[in-house]
Write a structure and sequence with these properties.
9 strands, nine-stranded mixed beta sheet, 276 residues, alpha/beta
């Protein structure tokens, strides 16, 4: 693993790193913010998963999380959204392939070789964080935006003992019922829709997976609110299965990082309370 960029911010260190991934079989980048507290003590970890078309850079440069992370002493880890490289299978559309890994472990050729973002996020990346940084891996939480909100929720639902808390900004709640998700799941996972349920938040909840609570912020002016986000389906699933969903609707906010950065400090403070 190699540090390719480093900056001091809010008394901590903002790093961008590159390494050869054993899950995705290619070179992967991610960013880590180490709060000043990490110089002297092991700090909890909050993972942020980004959305379609994004990389680690979007939230690192526009998410405005460092002041809150430094205040609460939380390490922020921001992986890429997909494998990348000349030998990685891709399609020339924004909603599939590069920048659109959907946080699944693909089973279909030619994508199964590289598109293993679920394993990368839940296994390989945490192992690197534990090995390289002063992190308390008994205190981990996860959040994300859009496709990354979907990723955060499925990771938490499938690993309830690993993550202390989960939140999301405008998440794709039921990808199996959206054009984005149906396209991606067919190509990554095949045509058998039962296989899709393992990577669909609403389906996972319906099938008995659970977490105590979920925090979601959503803008009312989000252009994808009806076609891609499908919040009412998540509300119904949570209500029917005893999950405490805190859904905060924000008048006039859209799907962009102007929205995300407006409420990032709230999410970090919320996770800090649960990380202890």
């Amino acid at each position: 693993m190699k540090i390719i960029n480093e900056n001091i911010s809010h008394g901590g260190r903002q790093l961008v790193l590159i390494h050869d991934s054993t899950s995705c079989h290619c070179e992967m980048k991610f960013s880590v913010f180490l709060p000043p507290q990490a110089e002297k003590q092991a700090c909890p970890v909050l993972y942020y998963l980004s959305g379609l078309t994004c990389s680690h850079a979007n939230v690192t440069e526009k998410g405005e999380f460092r002041a809150a992370a430094a205040k609460h002493g939380i390490i922020i880890v921001c992986p890429d959204t997909s494998p990348r490289g000349e030998n990685v299978a891709d399609e020339d559309v924004y909603y599939f392939g590069t920048g659109a890994g959907f946080y699944v472990d693909a089973t279909q050729k030619p994508f199964a070789e590289n598109y293993n973002m679920y394993s990368y996020v839940t296994d390989e990346l945490p192992a690197l964080i534990e090995q390289e940084f002063n992190a308390d891996m008994s205190r981990q939480s996860i959040t994300g935006h859009s496709m990354g909100g979907h990723g955060a929720m499925i990771c938490a639902l499938k690993n309830p003992d690993r993550y202390k808390s989960v939140s999301a900004f405008a998440p794709i709640c039921a990808p199996s019922k959206t054009d984005w998700g149906q396209n991606a799941f067919t190509k990554y996972l095949g045509t058998e829709k039962n296989a899709w349920r393992a990577y669909d938040t609403v389906a996972l909840i319906e099938d008995g997976h659970s977490v105590p609570e979920i925090l979601i912020d959503q803008g009312t002016a989000d252009e994808f609110l009806e076609s891609g986000i499908r919040v009412p389906l998540l509300e119904t699933a949570c209500n029917n299965n005893g999950i405490n969903l805190t859904l905060r609707m924000h008048e006039g906010y859209d799907h962009s990082y102007y929205f995300i950065s407006s409420f990032m400090a709230d999410h970090i403070a919320w996770h800090a309370e649960r990380l202890g």
